[in-house]
Amino acid sequence: MTKFGSRIAGITALFIALAACGGSNTPAAQTDVGVTSNSILLGNTIAQSGAAAAYGTIANGELAYFTYINNTQGGVNGRKITFKILDDAYNPAQTVPLTKQLVEQDKVFAMFSGLGTQAQTSVRDYLNAQKVPQLFVATGATTFMLDYSKYKYSIGWQPPYQGEARIYAKDILANHAGAKIGILYQNDDYGQDYLKGLTDGLGSSASMIVDKESYDVTATSTAAQLVKLKASGADTLFLFTTPGFTIPALVTVTKLGWAPAIYLNAVSNPEVYMGIAAKNGAALKNVTSVGYIKDPTDPQWASDSGMQLYKTVIANCTTCNVNDGFNIYGVAVAYTMVDVLKQAGSNMTRANVVNIATSGLNESNNPFLLPGVVVKTTSSDHFPITQEQVITWNGTGWSSQGGLVDERGTIK
Amino acid sequence: MIQRIRTTPPRYWLVLVVVLFFIGLPTVIDSFQSGEWAQALVLAIAIMGLNILVGYSGQISLGHGAFMAIGAYTSAILAHRYKMDYLATIPIAGLLTGILGFLFGVPALRLSALYLALATFALAVVTPSLIKRPAELTGGVQGIVLLPPVPPTFASDTFSALTGTALTSDQWTYYVTLAWTLVLFWLAWNLVRHRAGRAMRAIRDGEVAAAASGVNIAGYKTLAFGISALYAGIAGSLFGLAVGFVSPDTFPVALSIQLLVGAVVGGLASIPGPIIGAIFAYFLPIESNQWVPTQTWIPGSIASTIEKAGPAVTYGAVLILTMIFAPNGVVGLVLTGYSRLRGRLRGVPDRESGQMPPDPHTV
């Protein structure tokens, strides 16, 4: 009995010790998690591997801008920005635990520029329930602007996909009214958002769409879909596809001996990726897209002060390709983020920052965006950027067609 | 009674210590880590199921990730679409997956080891694609977002009375998972020590001999498949609870491999094996992802490669090394070490002298 008793006593002591350790482990309740007198911690999940790895450099561009601000201005109002980037491989099943980790373990002040429609949708409920700002998500999914009333802690940044697709609809109705449209789209919220925008934009002419084919993001090739689209008799091809799928699709179209007019979504149009497609044998004739950011490869910006600044900033990132349009995207969105933090001033609470981002933005001087593009939100309008410029591929770069098209207020 | 307690073999006390360790764990780690440990326990349940199939009845499955997916989706759909209490969906998910596993076991019986492995592998490959199809039901590629569970008042009151802090949903998930783990491990322990378990082991060690002794080969093989799938289904359901999100990509082929590696590393045909295997299988990829980038002495280009391929490569290497040096996994290694040590200390002749193995049950 004594032996048994001492064993029980020992185990009980162990358990009580464990419990006692837990007792002192009280999490301190503070309203400004992630902000100290000299630092602000922002978190980010992005695809740096997997099907959409091309986007990974966006976060590097953002980090380069924060480093630039920390080094030249000592941060924002004396607080240096720390930016923690985690790779979710464009897989929402990884985004959820990684976001939880950033919020609960690293205790970030806000999530900034998380990438991927599906990925960011899958953590939106969680972040809003925790009242953690989900700022300037790197997706143009319309729901991030349109559903503000339901998700007050989430906001996008780039032009909504539906708005972009409506611009294509206008362009095609104006210039190729007899076109037969074939669409290749990614089968998720992102692809379907574009599809909806195009269908809405075409309105009564939606019968111009003769075929639409989808692929899953886990697919390895879209050749079968392109063969079908060609067989459908389409003479105009819409690619609502991410860069990893766009480049082989452009090449396949040429290999099939097909020469449709191509409309390419803005999320895959940086000059670098067009160059890779061309190098692999894509003809790239008659390609139309839209832009709202200055293209680093466009000679017209060579002496532009914004472009000079971009080149200074991006020098902070040794692995970044200065010509990659995704890097200037990252720098541009980081500029807006810093702008918001500056406006928040001493009132660095999550609620205040989110309020400025979703309802109080008026940034007409973002040096990395095309002249005239304004980043703006009000209490009744939560679409930060709505202006885009139609561009066509001239063989070596993009040329502007006409002026900025504004889709503000058209999406409801 | 006291006499019985006094004669209890030491390993029962070890069990008690381990159980108390797991009960006390959330009080020393933070809420987020409790969530991680909950997921490790989920893997332990799935690996236990696989262990019953592979370790005790000698059939190979590379498709247990698919059974987890079925369990997770059953719970997610019932909870999300039909507004059922998530906890109530867990046994339903387990039973449904168990029945499916049993049905899958019927044709699978006709296949011998290698072909069975291929058939189950096919199951693992196909399931994520199948899930995407009825998009209205399963949410398609978007998956289903589940809200974190709210701890009931009795649990949070007890927890805060003991530790002085509020019970978070992650900690509650951990305890739910732990409760299921204990029940299922206890059931497995009973199973393998009784009639069915003996029959399964007999089939594994010699089908002809087992049949000659009157064991219903077809019956027990299918039963093993069904029970194994039931475990995977419950694990999948708990996985949905712990992660708060299910999508087809949550259950890739790699998950099935991860489970098998966990089972082998922990130790096939052992009860504690799956826990050790699960801790290994769950924390290895996380640690290698987070540790490698912080090591400045590794050149950037190599680090980024290792970071991505690290877990897969390590899984492979560890699997091969385990097969060569510790065919019975960590548990086998510990048991051998322990009996050798005891042999040395007590001066008992070693097994070359013809001594019986100390614990014939676990063979």
List the helices and strands and how they pair.
The complex is a heterodimer of chains A (412) and B (363).
Chain A: H1 2-23, E1 35-36, E2 39-46, H2 57-73, E3 80-87, H3 92-105, E4 110-112, H4 117-130, E5 134-137, H5 143-146, E6 154-156, H6 161-175, E7 181-186, H7 189-202, E8 209-215, H8 223-231, E9 236-240, H9 243-255, E10 261-264, H10 271-279, E11 287-291, H11 305-314, H12 325-344, H13 350-359, E12 362-363, E13 375-376, E14 387-393, E15 398-406
Parallel strand pairs in A: 2-3, 2-4, 4-5, 5-6, 7-8, 7-9, 9-10, 10-11
Antiparallel strand pairs in A: 1-2, 11-14, 12-13, 14-15
Helix pairs in contact in A: 2-12, 3-4, 6-7, 8-9, 9-10, 12-13
Chain B: H1 2-6, H2 10-28, H3 31-56, H4 64-80, H5 86-108, H6 113-132, H7 135-138, E1 144-145, H8 153-163, H9 169-193, H10 195-205, H11 207-212, H12 217-243, E2 245-246, H13 253-266, H14 273-291, H15 300-325, H16 329-346
Antiparallel strand pairs in B: 1-2
Helix pairs in contact in B: 2-9, 3-9, 3-12, 3-13, 3-14, 4-5, 4-6, 4-12, 5-12, 9-10, 9-12, 10-12, 13-14, 13-15, 13-16, 14-15
Write up what this structure looks like.
Chain A is of the alpha/beta class and about 400 residues long. Chain A folds into two domains: about 35-160 and about 300-380, 3-Layer(aba) Sandwich (Rossmann fold); about 160-290 and about 390-405, Response regulator (Rossmann fold), CATH 3.40.50.2300. Helix content of chain A is about 40%, strand content about 20%. In chain A, the strands form three sheets. A seven-stranded mixed β-sheet of chain A has the order 8-7-9-10-11-14-15, sandwiched between helices. In chain A, helix 9 (about 245-255) links the parallel strand 9 (about 235-240) and strand 10. In chain A, helix 3 (about 90-105) runs parallel beside helix 4. The longest helix of chain A has 22 residues, at about 1-25. Chain A is globular. In chain A, about 55% of the residues are buried. Mean pLDDT of chain A is about 90; it is low at about 1-5 and about 5-30. Chain B is mainly α. Helix content of chain B is about 75%, strand content about 0%. Chain B contains 16 helices and two strands. Chain B has a two-stranded antiparallel sheet. Chain B is globular. Chain B starts with a helix and ends in a 17-residue tail after the last helix. The mean pLDDT of chain B is about 85. Classes of the chains: A alpha/beta (about 400), B mainly alpha (about 375). The interface of A and B includes residues 4, 23, 26, 105 and 188 of A.
